[in-house]
Amino acid sequence: MNVTMPRSLTAVLLAMAAFAAPAAAAPAPSSPPDPVVFVHGWNSDGTAWNIMADRFRSDGWPADRLHQWTYPSSQSNTTTASRLADTIDRVLASTGADKVDVVTHSMGSLSSRHYLKDLGGDAKVDAWVSLAGPNHGTETARWCGGPACVEMRPGSAFLQALNSGDETPGATRYATWWSSCDGIVSPVTSVALTGAVNTQTPCLRHQALTDDAGIYQQVKEHIGGAAAQVPVAPAPPVR
């Protein structure tokens, strides 16, 4: 036997069911990414990062989280490291972030590593990137002058201190990229660090590593922590 409910009763039952149904959970708000501080190399400036920074912006990084820092490359790497420390403190204060990510090219790897190892930077840097960094020195630095160039020469007192003990200290996630076609870092094995994720790129010249789309994707994944990566021990550098 079919029973037809009065329309008023049907409305009441539907209303009761609506109240009884659990409300759909609101999506969790996404937290902003770590600010990125870009550190250029010798005889360069912050514009070296224009292409990579534009790619980060296109992928959703807010403009105030991308800092293309410029410093005088004629000064020593220890001086640059101190100024980098001040810059990162200002970025953390202005953004309210707990940590930054540091993306470096060439000589920028050295001052930033000094900051991480000797100035307490490992507590303030989540992920660190070295693109073609002469981490164990480069023979081409014998052709330029000034404190920074002397420090980049293989066997310099600065590099011996920087590479003594743990090359990748603290909880910071370290990664390097190097190319067999670099042309500036010599030997190319200088780039890789024990305890870092070390990646050989396609055949790219030294300056091209900052602009390559494929490397950008890998850098973005590294600083975003998109994939678990296992550190790879590098081949022993030529010192």
Q: Return the CATH architecture.
A: 3-Layer(aba) Sandwich
How would you sum up the major sheet? 6 strands, parallel
Percent of residues in helices comes to 25-40%
Alpha-beta content class: alpha/beta
Question: What number of domains?
Answer: 1
Strand order of the largest sheet: 2-1-3-4-5-6
Shape: globular
Explain the overall architecture.
This protein has 239 residues and is an alpha/beta fold. It has a single domain, classed as 3-Layer(aba) Sandwich (Rossmann fold). Helix content is 32%, strand content 13%. The chain is built from 7 helices and 6 strands; from the N terminus they run H-E-H-E-H-E-H-E-H-H-E-E-H. A 6-stranded parallel beta sheet has the order 2-1-3-4-5-6, sandwiched between helices. Strand 1, helix 2 and strand 2 form a beta-alpha-beta unit. Helix 3 packs across helix 4. The termini are far apart. The N terminus and C terminus are likely disordered.
